[in-house]
Design brief:
By secondary structure, this protein is mostly beta strands. It has two domains: 72 residues; 47 residues, no CATH class. The chain contains no helices and twelve strands. It has a ten-stranded antiparallel beta sheet with strand order 1-2-3-4-5-6-7-10-11-12, with no helix packed on it. A two-stranded antiparallel ribbon has the order 8-9. Strand 1 and strand 2 form a beta hairpin. The radius of gyration is 18 Å and the shape is extended. This is YD repeat (Two copies).
C-alpha cells in the first residue's frame, strides 16, 4: 500500500486560528484506490474492492471505540451496473405490513440506463 502522490491528510484553520483535523490519515492500494481513511473525529472507514474488476465491493466505518457505524456491501450485474447496496447494520423490521431492511436495489433498461430503485424495500 502506498500514500503518495495522493492526499494523505487534510486540515482546516478555524476563525479563531485553531487547526481542525478533517482527515488524519489515508492509505491507498497499488491500484490507486482508497483502502482506509481515518477522519479527524476518529472514525475509520475501510474499503474493499473486487480483485478482478476493482469495483468497490464493501465499505465499513468504525468509531474510535470500535462501534460499527456502517457496513455496506455492493452488488453489480455482469455489465458493471450497480444493482444493490446492503447496509448490514440495519435490522429487518416490519412497518405497515411491509418489510423494511437495509437493502437497496436498482434496475436498468436494455440500454443500461437506470430505471429506478427501491430504498430499504420501500419505493423512492
Amino acid at each position: 500500500m502506498t500514500s503518495a502522490p495522493h492526499v494523505k491528510s487534510q486540515y482546516a484553520t478555524l476563525s479563531d486560528g485553531k487547526k481542525q483535523t478533517l482527515l488524519e490519515d489515508t492509505m491507498w492500494s497499488a491500484a490507486g484506490q482508497v483502502v482506509e481513511e481515518k477522519s479527524g473525529n476518529g472514525v475509520t472507514t475501510s474499503y474493499r474492492y473486487e480483485p478482478e474488476t476493482q469495483r468497490l465491493s464493501a465499505m465499513s466505518a468504525l468509531r474510535a471505540d470500535s462501534t460499527l457505524l456502517q457496513d455496506l456491501d455492493y452488488g453489480y450485474d455482469n455489465t458493471g451496473n450497480l444493482i444493490s447496496i446492503t447496509d448490514n447494520t440495519i435490522a429487518t423490521r416490519y412497518f405497515q405490513n411491509q418489510q423494511t431492511d437495509g437493502r437497496r436495489e436498482f434496475t436498468y433498461d436494455a440500454l443500461y440506463q437506470l430505471l429506478g430503485g427501491n430504498r430499504a424495500r420501500e419505493c423512492w
